[in-house]
Structure formats: structure tokens, C-alpha cells
Amino acid sequence: MLSPNSWLAIARAPPLQPTAPAGILCRPPPLPDPPDPTQFPPLPAPRSPSNLSKPSSLPPSQPLRPVHPTPTTTLLSAGTTPSSASLLLASFLHCPFPNCSPNPIPISSTTMNPPLNPQSLPPISPPQPSSLLGAGPSLSQSPLPHPFPFTDPSPPSAPPTWASKVRSNTDRTLCRLSPQTFSPSGVPRVIIPDEVYQKGAELHKDFLICRFFGRIPAYKLIQNVLNYLWGKGKHLEIHMLPTTNSALVRLSNDFIREKVLLKRFWYVETSMFHVSQWSESATTTTPSLQRIQLWAHLKGVPFDLIYNAGLSHIAGQIGEPKETDDWTLSLSSVSVAHVKVEVDTSIPLPQIVEVGRSDGSFVNVEVDYPWTPPICSHCKELGHISRNCPLLP
């Protein structure tokens, strides 16, 4: 007969009288009683300035007994007087693990803080009386050195504005340069030398004059378009001249100014205008559009004619040949060639040019014009549409 299994004793117990709660096979061992607080050594009383001169009530020859006698009590070196703090620390220095070294590090009372000697403490000075403005350091005591050098906490000065720069660099003084004279009718008259005009024209050489062919648009519309096209997002200086149907625009960038003058004709919405360099001899009337330069795209040009001489023969049948572009000369496309010609707008522009050889064979080259000047349906003039016609109310 097999011996009964002690682990299954709970399972065989009657349900009405269980020997242990469900789920526990063996009752855990009872916990040990906590240590008695009365067996701990008393802590040393705090020392105040009033009882520093009194000796300690605990004689150094009678050390406290540790709670748990361990070999650490023998670690104190002979011939030394242990303190209560060192004995309290030595009583708790025991090895909690069984595999630790049996020879602990010797601890002597010299490694601990020695007991305070009342004779070595500096005397405590009585508190200084405070004034109504609060206590502060005396004049005899030198102040502590500051870790960082003292800096002036004044706020930095604001950067100069453009108005202040212009105001400081502009000479605003005037003086009399010519005598006061009158005309025979009594009107003041002055004759200004030509060098004065030339110097003023040199100072204003970065101005362009824009002459509109139809009704001049609003200032806000001109400003938005020209700032985007010419100013690259920056604000340009624009002066409206409504009496001459034109506007003055300052372009300080020489490269952009040359590109704008090279194109000559520009648009603000549906209003076309002509751009020229400002000069004292510039006319106040809008230039004529009877002869203008425009680009023509030639389609179906023979491959052996796509170079300067061959394109000049074909462009001469449309108008006065001027130039071609790098896109055509680099043979980026062999089916289309670009040429610029000066045409007479009073004559209809050709749509086809017949190109022949010496043997009598001919090839038709189609001509396409990406842009032509608009024609007003009301006054039949070039340069504007009926919406911007100045003759309409």
C-alpha cells in the first residue's frame, strides 16, 4: 500500500470542514516578530550653543552594546575610544549574504568623524540689530566675488530705419545759382545750363517710362503686376502720369532693366504698354505700332536649312529678319524653328512660305505667330481691345 501524499491532504478533506483555504496547498510559515524598539541604543542628544561646554553624559569607557552581536564589534582598532555614532554604524555592518567574504574590511574609529571638541569650535557672534530698511552686510566685510563680470543691463539700441539713412545721407540744402530775371511780360524767367540737365538725367537713368496704348489701369493693378514681373516680389517705385497715359517705374537692377527694355511690349491684365528708357528727349506720345518686332514659328523647315543662312532666307519673306534663338540652333527640335522679324502691321501676315530648290521642287513651311498686337473692335486701332478703348465712356 502506497503511503498517503501529504500534498493531497487538503484535497481529501471534507468540504464542510476544510483544513486550508482553497488554492493553498501548504500554509506558509509564520513571520518572525519585529525587533523590540527598546533594545536599540539611544541617539545622542543634539548639541546647542548653550550646552557645548558640557561634557557628554555617556562616558567613553562604557560603549553601548549592539543589538545583534556580530564580529564587526571586534573590528575597532585597539587603543582607540569609539564614539556612539561609530558603534551604532558598526552594529549594522554585517554580511547579509552567505557567500560574502568572511574577513570584512576593518573599520576603525579613526575613519569615522571624530567627536566634536567644544574647545575647537569658533565662538558664535551675537546677531546684528536690523534697521528699518533691512539687515545688510557691514562696510567692514568685503563682498563675495561675483562669478560673472558685471554687464550693463540697458536694452540694445534699435537699428536705424531706411528713412533715417536717407535723411542722413541726402543733402537738402539749396542756394542761389542764378540771378532773378523777368521776361518782357513780367514773368520770372531763368535759363538753366545744359550740364544741369545732363546731371539730372544721369541721376534718373534707372527710371523706365511705360506708355499705355489704351486706357491706363488702376495704380493697384499696375503695382501688383510689375512687382511680380520686374521686382520679383519686392516693391517698386511707381509714379503715375495720367495726363500722358503713362507711368514712371524705377528699376535699380541693371540686368533686369536691360531684359525689360529688350522685350519692349508688356501687359498689365489686358492693357498693353510700351517700355523705353527715360530721357529728356523722350516724346510724350504713345509710339506707333505700324512696325513692330515679333516672333514667328516655322514648321516643316528642311533639315539642311536649320542654321543662320537658311533661316534668314525664309524669315526674309515674312518681314525684316532680326535673330533666332539658341533652342533652334542647338537642334532641340527639328520640326520647329524660331525667328524674330520686324513686320508691317498694316499688311496681313503670311501663314505659309513656299521654299524651293534649283531643280524646281517646293516645300510649304507653315508660319505661326505666338503673339500679335490686339485690335480694338470699336476704333480699329492696334494696341488695345474694346474694353480699354479710350473713346468709349
Characterise the protein shown here.
Residues 376-390 form the CCHC-type domain. One of its GO terms (molecular function) is nucleic acid binding. The protein has 393 residues and is an alpha+beta fold. Among the domains are: 194-277, Alpha-Beta Plaits, CATH 3.30.70; 291-368, 2-Layer Sandwich (Alpha-Beta Plaits), CATH 3.30.70. The chain has helices spanning 84-91, 162-169, 194-203, 219-229, 254-263, 308-315, 326-329, and strands at residues 181-182, 188-189, 207-212, 237-241, 246-250, 265-268, 271-277, 291-299, 320-324, 336-344, 352-356, 362-368. The strands form three sheets. A five-stranded antiparallel beta sheet has the order 4-5-3-7-6. Strands 9-10-8-12-11 form a five-stranded antiparallel beta sheet. A two-stranded antiparallel sheet has the order 1-2. A hairpin with a 5-residue loop joins strand 1 and strand 2. The chain is flat, with a radius of gyration of 54 Å. The model is unreliable at 69-79, 107-112 and 130-135 (pLDDT under 50).
Classify the oligomer. Answer: single chain
CATH superfamily caption of the domain at 194-277: RRM (RNA recognition motif) domain
Distance between the termini: 129 Å
> Cα-atom Rg, whole angstroms?
54 Å
Beta-strand content bin: 15-25%
**Sheet/helix structural class:** alpha+beta
Kindly state the number of beta strands: 12
Strand order of the largest sheet: 4-5-3-7-6
